[in-house]
# Entry
Amino acid sequence: MMSVRRIPYQSFRRRNTHNWLLFLVRLTALALIVLAFARPLITSADVAPAAGEGAREVVVLLDTSYSMGFADRWENARAAAYEQINGLSGSDRGSLVLFSSGAEIMVRSAPEQAALRGAGADARPGAAATRYAPALKVAGGIVAESTLPRREVILISDFQRGGWRGEEGARLPEGTVLTPVPVKAAQDRANVSVTAASLARSAFSNQERVTVTAGLTNRTDRPVSGQTITLEVSGIPVATKPVTMEPGGSTSVAFDPVTVSGRNMRGTVRLSDDALAIDNSFNFVISPTEPVRVVVVDRGSAAANLYLSRALAIGEAPRFDMTTRQVGSLSDDDLRRSAVVVPNDVAVGAGLPGRLARFVDQGGGLFVAAGPRASWPADVDLLPGAIGNPVDRTRGDAARVGALEYAHPVFEPFRAPRSGNFATIPVYGYRSVTAGPETQVLAKFDGTAPAVIERRVGSGRVVLWASTLDVSWSDLPTRGVFLPFVHQSMRFLSGYSEPRPWLSVGQVLDASSGALAKGDAGQRVVLTPSGRRVPLQDEGSDVMELTEQGFYELRGEENDVAVVAVNVDAAEADLTPMDPKLIVAAAIGAPGDVEGGEGSGVPLTPEAQEKNQRLWWYLLVAGIVLLGIDTVMSNRMAKA
# Structure
């Protein structure tokens, strides 16, 4: 305490303010800065933002999904679009965007109303379903590039509830006004839609027959009576039945079996007309069941093929057509007609390996059973592994098959519990196999030696089983897993997939699979239901988006034809509307008023109100300016 300097204590009862102006400037600056960091907002309902002034950038989004064709909805929607277009002033610019599952800009930022009205006059409801997100993203891109002071988006739709999935990426730029315009029909009318058709196959007198059952749903609250449903095959009505339904009810109608007389038989289940005609028909294609052709190359022993032939004879979905050939008698014609070749414990030589390599490279499948007599030349790189010496497990414990790759299609049926256990099957002999590069080991003997190996070569696949398909080396052919193992292997190697009798609008036609998969893509042409011819080389790939309801024809060389039936999305026929405020809230961050209806009635949270106000920014700038004035005044007073 001795080192602390003594300062005389002075007491003042009152200090006088010498410069009131400087004092007020400082207090005001501090108050503004404190208020700015407090981020004030105005919550009074009586305070409304001033109406925007200046030219407008207006984007009209017009729904052309097929639900807009119900009754007179489309006429009302087009009238609403014309009303918005006619309201544009001379300094405004307007855009017209037609949308359904996608969005298309018909006119962009045009000052002339005539161009907008002309584009709207040619518009019609299509066959696609409703998706709001693509339309909002397109509208957001248009208004974001605009230099006009006011930006508005008009959404005209029936607001079918299946079209909105709460997409986060559909947000419009800040300051954009989104106005939903709901469109309704002038009168409530009944609407029944054909939602599906099931095809049950059967055999009668060595002929394949199909029983068609149609599923119907009443989409309105009105009863239905007096309507009829007709089954058409190849454009000819074959049966008609009456339809009576309760409000909101569902039912099914079964028709008598139809004989499958050829490929690409076109079938349609058609209802009589009602308020929405596009969902009154359901198309499908019927073709005879095509078997998977398998050629087995053996050494002329019936015992070696006994269990394999019986397993292939049992197949129904698909059927397997098995042909037996010896090594020297397998012709090129056999390879062209077959999907899978099975060298069953044979020595492959004399030029056959090169032919099999070309067969696999062009999309064929090869299943090699490596028994005691199997061999393969080393100069032809085709197998997934090199076949080594036999391993004798007749003495001591037999080998067991384990470490199965259940994710692979060959072993996928055995994934579920109690669906088959390979580990309980003894294997008394197998060939040692050295797996090659770019191969996949699907199963192992005792968890170490490869048992099943797969390799992709060109467009085809090769599977090697390192044992026999008879009972000479294992008990596998006598166990329950043998049948599904053989069937799954043949399906996988042949590339078999269950043929789809129909597709939906919005899906893609894949010409790389099916009847014309092996053709030249440059020679294939797609004939649409409206009659347009679209060469696939113009599309730039083997796929094409399906945009029309009806039958597409895929034509290739030598008059090969594949027919694809296309139907509308049944979910779009559900005319139950959603609340447009959900879309407005997601697009601009706040619910808006709906034209022709009441206000939103949904109060904004303080956080949402604060985001729409920028009062704090102006307060902060004013406080900083006053601090600058304070500095200038203080410096001048100090010099004085």
